[in-house]
Amino acid sequence: MHFLSDLLSDLSLGVIKNYLSMNLENEKLYLNGNRIYLRTLTEQDATQRYASWLNDAEVNSFLATKSATVNELQEYIAKKNQQFDAILCGIFLKDNDLSIGTVKFEPIDLDSRRARIAVMIGDKTFWGQGFAGEAMELLMKYGFDKLRLTEIDLGVIDKNEAAIRTYHKLGFQEIKRDLKVVEYDGILYDQVWMEFKCPLVV
Ligand SMILES: CC(C)(COP(=O)(O)OP(=O)(O)OC[C@H]1O[C@@H](n2cnc3c(N)ncnc32)[C@H](O)[C@@H]1OP(=O)(O)O)[C@@H](O)C(=O)NCCC(=O)NCCS
C-alpha cells in the first residue's frame, strides 16, 4: 500500500514538474482575488513606475535591491520567466488594472515541496490596506492547490514591523532567527525566518 501511494505520489509530482516547466515556459499565470489579481509579468511590465518603486528609499529600505532601471527590470523579468524554480507575478487592482506591486515564489523546490515567498507593495498609497496579505494568500493557495507545496517560508529583517505584522496575520510563524546579521542604518538586526504549513497536511 505504502509503495503504491509513494509511486502515485512520485508520478503526480512528475506531472506537476512537467506542468510547472510548461507553465513557466509557455503559459501565463492569472490568479483572481477579491480586490486584486495576480498575473505573470512580461517584459512590457518593466515600466518607469515599477522602477520608481525600487528606487524609492522608503520602499526599498528593507529590500536587497536598492535601485533599478527599466532595462534591468526587463532582464530580471525575462530571467524569472525562464527559471523553473521561480514564479514572479505583478499585483494589479481589479478596478482599473493599476499595478501596485509584485509577489513571487523563489526558489520553488518541488522535491521538498517548499517555496520561499516575497512581496512588495511598491505604490505606497496602497500600504496599510491588506493588499500584501491578499496577494500572498492568492499565490500561496496556488502553491498548495496546484503545485502541491506543503510549506512556504520567508525571511524578514526584524526591523520591518509592518511586514512581520502582515505575515503573522496570515498565519506565518517564526521558526528561526539569525542574530544581528542584517545592517540597517548602521545597526545590526536579526534575520527572522517564518514558515506557513499547508493546513491540509497532517
Ligand atoms: C511590508 C508590506 C509588504 C506590508 O504590506 P501592506 O499591504 O501595507 O500590509 P498590511 O496592509 O497588512 O499592513 C501592515 C500591518 O502592519 C502595521 N504597520 C504598518 N507600519 C507599521 C510599523 N512601522 N510598525 C508596526 N506595525 C506597522 C499596519 O498597521 C498593519 O497592521 P494592521 O492591519 O493590524 O493595522 C509593504 O509595506 C511593502 O511592500 N513594503 C516594502 C517592501 C517590503 O518591505 N517587503 C517585505 C520584505 S520582507
Concise summary:
With 202 residues, the protein is α+β, with helices and mostly antiparallel strands.
What does this molecule look like?
This protein has 202 residues and is an alpha+beta fold. It has one domain (2-154): Gcn5-related N-acetyltransferase (GNAT) (Aminopeptidase), CATH 3.40.630.30. 35% of the residues lie in helices and 32% in strands. The chain is built from five helices and eight strands, in the order αββααβββαβαββ. It has helices at residues 2-26, 48-54, 70-82, 131-145, 161-170; strands at 30-32, 36-40, 87-93, 99-109, 114-121, 151-157, 173-184, 187-197. The chain has an eight-stranded mixed sheet with strand order 1-2-3-4-5-6-8-7, sandwiched between helices. Helix 4 (131-145) links the parallel strand 5 and strand 6. The longest helix has 25 residues, at 2-26. The two termini are 19 Å apart. The chain binds coenzyme A (COA). Coenzyme A binds next to strand 5, helix 4 and helix 5.
How do the helices and strands line up, and which of them pair or pack?
Blueprint lengths: L1 H25 L3 E3 L3 E5 L7 H7 L15 H13 L4 E7 L5 E11 L4 E8 L9 H15 L5 E7 L3 H10 L2 E12 L2 E11 L5
Parallel strand pairs: 5-6
Antiparallel strand pairs: 1-2, 2-3, 3-4, 4-5, 6-8, 7-8
The protein binds coenzyme A (COA).
